[in-house]
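Lecture 7 notes: from sequence to structure.

We start with a single chain of 487 residues. Read the sequence below before looking at the structure.
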Amino acid sequence: MVGLLAWSLLCLVPSIASSFPDDAPKVELALYYESLCPDCQLFIRQQLYPTYLKVSDILDLTLVPYGNAEERKSGDKWVFQCQHGPKECEGNLIETCAISLLKNISASLPFVYCFEKNIEGSEEPKAVAETCAKSLKIDYDSIEACVSGSLGNELEHKMAAMTDALEPQHQYVPWVTVNGKHTEKIQNKAERNLLELVCEYYTGTKPKPCEKQEFDRCYKSTLPLIELKKALRLRDVHEPSLCQGIKVGMPLTRVSDPCRGKMKIKLYILFVLLAALPVFCVGAPAAAPKVEIALYYESLCGGCRQFIETQFYPTFLKVGQIMDVTLVPYGNAQESRTGDEWRFTCQHGEAECVGNIIETCAISILQNATSFFPFIHCLESTIAEYNPVSAAEQCAGQLGIDFSSIDKCQSGAQGNALEHEMALKTNALNPPHYFVPWITLNGKHTDEIQNRATFDLLGLVCDTYKGTKPDACQKKESAISRCYRHA
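Now the structure, written as tokens:
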């Protein structure tokens, strides 16, 4: 009986062991930054926070908000001078106190993310911090007491000491170390694809986000599997030529009459073109065509917002002069005709339909991508937290755009008709889309294009462009800029 029990326990060992997580060490990731550096804000929003949400179980994260600041002792206190002024010093202190008081990074990082996302354009760091604390149900009074007292002063001095102890010394922020080390290779990879970097360094069993790295996607829930398979098999089919079998050097007498006539015409055209070639060559060279990037998306899809914020808009800011941008805000919606109007049903509810139409109206009214894209980017950054109309009005005010015309459009027949056009564009995709964000390059969509655009749109655009590359393409290791010391 004892032997049988022992055998049973031995049989259970594999299943018991498999229920425990790996004992592989976590990846130690440290970010040295400053609160008002736009490039630090971008890195936190685009790379750090999304990566933490996906693979926090294998991350040991340290945040050091000090950056390119300097300190000096004055009596019993430390006095800090920050690269972006006193407001940045205040922001650094707020984040330092939050990190210390909340202790657990799972509590402090959402606060830091909220603060960095909303501090841009605000004159009052404390007001932003209080709003973030309230939304996250954090006691702001204790943070405020820390910031205004000796505790915050000493904590920020510790951040200064940690930053000054870096080896090699930091030259800019954001400055990233992995397992205590910093190299240009680590930095460039972190700025481009932090998730992949963390997954590469982790020596244990990889979590699922490491197995297939992709942005979140909003899949169509109504596409039958058989239609999906058919869509993926669609290919261009060309009928065979009537003049097959003609070889180079074959005498014209051996070619059939219809084909001989076609060949003579083609040879004549070729002769004319060759004769005119010197004329064309001495003229100004033709400009290379722009790279056509089209994004099919919906306004409340998290993966769409992430792609716009982390890839599409930053790439447009860097190489917009070689891009022809098309935005199609419809996504996985459906439409039906009721009288003279179209009725739209959206994947994320009525608010998404309103957001789609607002963006459609803005695209139509503002016309130029340099005007409508900043508005779309602003709206996609805030729409999940506010009523779509309120968020749009706020963005229009920030950008000096007349919101009344957009509002009139989205609430009337014009917006209804324009959104129907977006539906037609989406439904005309070949192959049909089955998730969003759905990206086409020069009118084509493939898995390779989608995956490359998802993580390195800048590189994809630069590699596709046939003309003289802009400067941003020559240094395309990262889509993120940096705040250099003493700049």
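The CA atoms of residues 2 and 8 lie 10 Å apart. Keep this in mind for problem set 3.
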